Amino acid sequence: MSRKAVIRHRRNPVKPNGYASHGKLLFAALLETFCQLYDSDPEQSRKLFKLICQTLRNMGILDEEYMDELSGIRMTYQNALHHLIIQAKQIMHEDVPPSSSTSSADLLEQRTSQSLVLSPRQQTLQLNSSPSTPRMLLDLEGRDLNPWSTQRNSRYSNDFDEKRLLGKGGFGAVYQAQHKVDGVDYAVKKIHLNLHHYSYSKVFREIKSLARMDHPNVVRYFSSWLEHSSETKTQSTNMAHPMSSTHPFEQETDDLIVEPYSPTLSFQSDTAEEPSRVDEELGEIVFEKSTTRNETDSEEDDSSVTLSSTSSSTDDSSSSSNDSSSVTQSSLEDIEGRIGNLVLHQTSPPPSEHDEEETGYFDTDHNACDGLATPSPSYRLTLYIQMQLCPDDMASYLERRNRVLSFPMSSFQTQLHLNLFRAILQGVLYVHEVMHLIHRDLKPGNIFLAQSKVDERGSVLLNTFRNGEQSDDLTFVTPKIGDFGLVLDRRMGSRALTPSTGGRQFGPDAVIFSNNAGTSTYAPSEVHALDSEGRVPISEKVDVYALGIILFELLYPMRTGMERMVCLRKLKQGILPEEFVKQLVCESTLILWMTALDPKKRPSISTILQSDLLYKGGGKSTEIIAYEADRVQAADMENSLLRTENMKLRAEIEALRAKLREK
Ligand SMILES: Nc1ncnc2c1ncn2[C@@H]1O[C@H](COP(=O)(O)OP(=O)(O)OP(=O)(O)O)[C@@H](O)[C@H]1O
Q: Catalytic pick from 144, 279, 370, 441?
């Protein structure tokens, strides 16, 4: 029986994102291979591939990232397919006798589904499987060719030595890992992607924002990459995100989980009569092994169309393909028209305006962190983000400090903490004004403290607190804003353009709607005023509110969790401790201004930085200036000693060289 690719509607798709992503990757991989066949000049075939991808993107069939960002992963699909074909050819040359009870197709299936180790002479694949691990496609040198496998293709395990888990958050886990080449320790965040839509565009858009950030008060980002991973998916109760209890509207989204390798990309024998198919809704090609024949039949009866019934399309396809080798100059529309006949209409609606507006790139994947769940193996994409390692954060610092200091702090300590706050403001100013982003999850735990040897840009002086004691030594510390997992691009939403923005295109009060509100303690009440679609209105002023609370925590040491809870609850009602208001009038005014109920009444970050309210407290005391001058002088002296030493050594080397030359 001839094999037919069958196009059909899937009325009730299961885990569409995972299937769609794999389907699109596979499609892009095949398309690229075709382009290489049509033009042997690598440059030209690349151009051809890009042109077609662009066309398909304009038609909403293939997302942009399948062209560039996912090219590495696309290659593993090509390799896997290539080696699968080699394996099939090998079997064909083995001349299976017709009387044999095992057909070639059965043999191929067996080899792809059982642990068969082929002899090196056969120059083909080993296929492994075990109940607990995914099947692995290995070449004879043991290279893992399975695009879903992590072991050999993992940039992370190839390049890094994982040292320890730094912690788990709502979106993934962060590890301290040493780079094998440069020897530096980094923080590497692993996020199992969990996307709403069929596109990774949001992920890449936001990662690109992170990559462009360059400010001493923002955690330094080094790189990010995607890997197929075989992870243990946990399937049970969600680990509560800080906001999940107060925000029932936060939706659990479809996960980017695809079923294990073999069922998704299995190859059927003729006798199995289970055609490969192109999933119409998802625009994906699925080589599927169906176990319930009747179900397949009935679905096909309802809505499937075989490719043979679209013969005109097929004809067109060949003509367009033939032409395409010489049509690299053709207009996109022309090619669109030709490909149009081949294209299956997507039954799912295109992303709505709101979808585009909601740009948080890490949709919550609570399961990833759920220790109580029942594990089951599944396949997914993992996003790795390599960042600067910051061993300390403000939450831990405040905890240590609060064990030692109580209110009122000395004016020197108050000044130190106001300087720390000012440096944090500089980082947020950069995020808002230069990057046009809203962090929306500012809290002490997301403000890291990096140690500096000298007075670097963005650094401040702080006392160290350890074991319930304050050390007299002051050290330079640079506060760094991190965890951009909920970041929103102000420019993305059309709703960001409000009448109040005046001359500025995207004013500080411009609102974007999202489905995640950040951490409840630091989130203002306006995030509870949902729009008609149950989404949270977010503006820059959400960050200002969080910073108002942080400022209070910096200036008012609280010993116990209960005291903190009571004080912060009161602050949210606009009430500050009496002793605090009496002692720190300007700072109290600033905090109440920043935490005003009406977001439009809150100052922008630049207004705060220019405000006398902060300047009065935030100016450097003579004590600090003197200390800093001492440190800078000491560093200068050390430098000049090193320079002298260096000169001496150079002279000695020169003398030795001269002696050698004489000999
Ligand atoms: N650059 C970094 N250096 C050192 N530790 C880090 C770094 N980034 C994150 N961490 C630590 O890793 C842990 C998890 O961080 P992550 O940002 O994933 O979650 P979180 O901020 O704790 O929670 P959520 O993401 O839900 O807000 C935290 O304990 C955090 O302090």
A: 441
